[in-house]
Amino acid sequence: MSDHYQVLGVSRDATGEEIKKAYRKLARKLHPDVNTAPGAADEFKAVSHAYEVLSDPQKRRIYDTTGQENGTDNGFGGGFSGQGFGFQDIFDTFFGGGAGGGRGPASRTRRGQDALINVRIDLKDAVFGTNKKIDVETAVLCPTCDGSCCQPGTSPRTCDICHGTGQVQRAVRSILGQVMTTAPCGSCQGFGTIIPDPCHECAGEGRVRSRRTLTIKVPAGVATGTRIQLSGQGEAGTAGGPQGDLYVEIRVNADPVFVREGDDLHATLTVPMTAAALGTVITMETFDGAREISIKPGTQSGEVTTLKGLGVTHLRGYGRGDLMVHVQVETPQKLDAEQEELLRRLAELRGEQCAEGRVGGTSSPGVFAKLRDRLGNH
To answer: Could you write out the DSSP letters of every residue in 321-368?
Structure first.
């Protein structure tokens, strides 16, 4: 007796679906009605018998354990009537569908699609969160028919062609003779019912386009690209089907003062040369109100003052990032005679009349400008 697994060309741990797929492929190739080569009929019998044994869980278990078939016929014999192998298998092999006994009528009700809109907010709103009103245009439940798809006072009627089954059967000639195939009813499109008087407002779809206003809660800490899911606020489904979800994608506007890096904020503070040399205290407006920035005597461009906890709120977790204030020392460009004389006198006192520059000095002008170019607002 030949090995059934070798006959079908599958491994011994093949799944039932893999066994069926292998059988169908070989049956199409070897069936006597399509293959008249010598020996093809015998090969077809062997393939069919192997499938009869391996497609039945009990027979396969006995075959795997004992190597025997527990009295099953080794020929093609009753393969068409044995358990696990019948006419349906042959029909599926050649037509890919079932004969009779369909799945029943299809439902008109479908879930609506998800929708996506973009919403712009200011950086301050991203820091603290906000409530924002948005206008959304989506499909909503038809107010006239309430999703029934029928003109008020009417209702669907059973299809006269398929009698409510949603399917019709046709006789088809094949290599196996005349067989019955099942297909969706062309009259009712497989729904089993017909709508004789569709709703005038929604044209029988059960939904219409409408613009509405929603208020969404934007959590603190969002960034450009963050998506907020609003369940059940998307497109209404057909025939009263449930709504999909609405996704709101955040876009944060660039701020004229602050640049975001992660959950930290960066800002530049320009101070006069004299203030940087002598030291001072400057009041700076932040998202949390006015804060005093201490400029120590001799402050250089590029020095950073950190204000703890004045950055962006952490989206997941607690607390906030920091505010990094980058100092930029401003050199005067226009001097009157008195100012120029005073600076020359200062240079003499400091021995800097012919001062030479230093390559690789400690000051770092333009640090914040480079940071802004690299990061942009997030």
So the answer is: --EEEEEEEEPPS---HHHHHHHHHHHHHTT-TTPPP-TT-S--TTHH
- Angle between helix 16-30 and helix 40-54 axes, rounded to 10 deg: 160
Which domains are assigned to the chain?
Answer: 4-95 (1.10.287.110), 115-140+208-252 (2.60.260.20), 259-375 (2.60.260.20)
Q: Output the CA angle 344-349-352, nearest 5 degrees.
A: 65
Tokens standing for residue 33: 């009605």
Q: How far apart are CA 7 and CA 59, in angstroms?
A: 16
pLDDT tens track, the chain, 378 positions:
578 888 889 888 888 888 888 888 888 787 766 777 888 788 888 888 888 888 888 888 888 877 777 544 444 333 333 344 444 455 444 444 443 444 678 888 989 999 999 999 999 999 999 999 999 999 999 999 999 999 999 999 999 988 888 888 877 776 666 777 788 888 898 999 999 999 999 999 999 999 999 999 999 999 999 999 999 999 999 998 899 999 999 999 999 999 999 999 999 999 999 899 999 999 999 999 999 999 999 999 999 999 999 999 999 878 999 999 999 999 888 888 998 888 888 888 888 777 665 665 544 444 445 545 554 545
Q: Which residues, including other chains, have CB under 8 Å from residue 118's CB and lie 6 or more apart?
A: 248, 249, 250, 251
Say how far residue 32 (Cα) sits from the centre of its chain: 50
Residue closest to 233 by CA, chosen among 219, 247, 250: 247
How many angstroms separate the CA atoms of 7 and 27, rounded?
Answer: 12
CA atoms 174, 177, 182, 186: torsion sign: positive
